[in-house]
Amino acid sequence: MQSLSYLILLIGILFTFSKVHSKKPVDEQYCEVCIKTINTFIDTLTDSEKTNAEKIEKEFKKFCSKVKIDTKEHRLCYYIGGLETSATYAVGDLAKPLSWGIPVEKICRERLSKTNPQICDLKYEKQIDVNSVDLHKLKVKDLKKILSDWGESVDFIEKSEFIKRINEIKDKYVKPTADANKKDL
């Protein structure tokens, strides 16, 4: 009888631990490109199209044909099969759950990522705030990225040359923040 109560206690503890352990926080950046792109796509659909899987597939291919080449969204379309050059076809894995009303986060993070894990590996690059960052602490790669994002030449060798060039032209590309204005007073 006593061993039965220990067994029930042990099962209760294990059950409680499994419930607590399974509540992992969701990383908001995980599958961010998929979630944002599919939400943008859904906004282009009419109410009648949103419930029809065949129409969703057709419209997704149209949507992907208009996506700018060499972007994260274009790469996602390639992975899902929305482009003519796609090696795989998983548009049905997207269209059917969408037509059933399943949330986009669940479709991207659970369904599409199972068929192709690269879908959730796509991430947007974080923009560097030139006003709030110490340029001397950045890597040369990041300094090059700032200049190339601005459309400026990046044919320097020394880190100090990159920093000097960014400081020379940053007023042309970056608006001063409120904090920067307070420092000037």
Automatic annotation (TrEMBL):
InterPro entries: ARMET-like (IPR045333), ARMET_C (IPR019345), ARMET_N (IPR045332), SAP_dom_sf (IPR036361)
Chief site of localization: secreted
SUPFAM superfamilies noted in UniProt: SAP domain
Stretch forming the signal peptide: 1-22
A Pfam family this chain is assigned to: ARMET_C
Family: Belongs to the ARMET family.
PANTHER family with a match to the protein in the record: ARMET-LIKE PROTEIN (PTHR12990), MESENCEPHALIC ASTROCYTE-DERIVED NEUROTROPHIC FACTOR HOMOLOG (PTHR12990:SF5)
Full protein name: Mesencephalic astrocyte-derived neurotrophic factor homolog
Organism in which the protein naturally occurs: Rotaria sordida
